[in-house]
Amino acid sequence: MELKGKTVLVTGSTQGIGLAIAQAFAKQGANVVINGRHGASKEVISSIQAENVTCWDLSADITDPDAVKTMIDSIYEKAGQLDIVVNNAGIVNDKLLNRMSEADFSQVINTNLTGTFNVIKACLRPMYKARRGAFINMASVIGLTGNIGQANYAASKAGIIGLTKSVAKEASMRGIRCNAIAPGMIDTAMTAQLSDKVKAEILKQIPLKRLGSTQEVAQAAIFLAENDYITGQTITVDGGLTMQ
């Protein structure tokens, strides 16, 4: 898919990996919809507009189907099209399973997995009509391997991988693709909070012996958006952490 002039929605894109993905699409000439629970900063919007593309800032809680539908309708009203959707919004709430409440589990599932479902469902009807489109869903290596203290997060990300494959099979007949990215340990504000000791232990498990960058995850998103013959796949961006 040629990205110049296309319209891209990136959920959870006011910071971190989501922002890097939004900026990467803008560099390719795509118009970008920034999304978060709250409005984006002027600096974020300016970083997109600096690429001489249009940037819309649309706030919506992806756990609310009505709010998601309103956002998608607004995109079509403003841009006239929606070509690529990157479902990046997500949260963590880490606890050992025997200390995890039902609310702790449901909160993460509702945001990460159900939120992704809500966005995809709201987009499918107009994409079916246009007979084109691409979804890129943000999974995680934790969805592939599991992790201590992250049963809720692992379940949500494993669910996203299964959802991705199902959407890819259903939507392929209308020319719509759906893929996932599973990042490993990426250098973000979250990993910056880890102690040097914890980071050192993590690096021992990564063959490339470093954390990944948000830009490297963004490069994978661009690749999946551009290649029209890839669907139903999960691309790991993890420095070799989960290689078999």
Task: Output the keywords.
48% helix; Rossmann fold; 244 residues; alpha/beta
Secondary structure: helix percent: 40-55%
Oligomer: single chain
Label the overall shape: globular
- Overall pLDDT, averaged? 96
Q: How are strands sequenced across the largest beta sheet?
A: 3-2-1-4-5-6-7
Explain this structure to me?
The chain has a seven-stranded parallel β-sheet, with helices on both faces. 48% of the residues lie in helices and 15% in strands. Strand 1, helix 1 and strand 2 form a beta-alpha-beta unit. Helix 1 (16-27) packs parallel to helix 2, helix 1 (16-27) packs across helix 9 and helix 3 runs parallel beside helix 4 (102-130). The protein has a single domain, classed as Rossmann fold, CATH 3.40.50.720. By secondary structure, it is of the alpha/beta class. The chain has helices at 16-27, 42-49, 65-79, 102-130, 142-145, 151-171, 189-192, 196-205, 214-226; strands spanning 7-10, 31-36, 55-59, 84-87, 133-138, 176-183, 234-237. The chain starts with 6 loop residues before the first strand and ends in a 7-residue tail after the last strand.
